[in-house]
Amino acid sequence: MRRGPGLAGLMKGREQQSALSAVGEQMEADKTQQATALLQSLQTALQSFAAKHRSRINSDPKFRQSFCEMCMAVGVDPLSSSKGLWDELLGVGQFYNDLSVQVLTLCLRTRDENGGLLDLGQCLAQLRKGATREVSQEDVERAVECLAQLGPGVSIRICGRRPLICSTVEARSRDFSKPFET
């Protein structure tokens, strides 16, 4: 009959386990340090790109859309905060905040005429009349997405092939203990 490991064998097993744990922690620390360095270099590269192309990002809606898509692809949201890095560099967050206020104002002003369903093309035409920057349909869609963070009430819905900005209050079910119906 074979006996189990003795005291020396148990001690050696514990030493090996703690050595493996130390190596694992060191590897994890190295990976974290490498990821942090990579993120910092990416942030620096995006900052320099944004600073270099600031005027084009602010004036050209297609370039602005491409810049936002590039940022989102690497996990950076340029619209995440109006007081963040991108707003300091570009004013992009503030642009969309201002645009979302204009869209909401237009929706509320025309609600009696259209029942809260404003055609996106009509909205865009109205916004372009008084705009200092060129505004695209994608800009309006992003502005409406910013409003969606405030809760249900303003969204884009497709009716046929026409995109409409819906600014109506969601219907409640007959059971008032249930949430809004969508």
TrEMBL record:
InterPro entries: ESCRT-2_cplx_Snf8, Snf8/Vps36, WH-like_DNA-bd_sf, WH_DNA-bd_sf. One of its GO terms (biological process) is protein transport to vacuole involved in ubiquitin-dependent protein catabolic process via the multivesicular body sorting pathway. GO terms for cellular component: ESCRT II complex. SUPFAM superfamilies: Winged helix' DNA-binding domain (SSF46785). It holds the Pfam family EAP30. PANTHER family: EAP30 SUBUNIT OF ELL COMPLEX, VACUOLAR-SORTING PROTEIN SNF8. Belongs to the SNF8 family. This is Uncharacterized protein. It comes from Effrenium voratum.
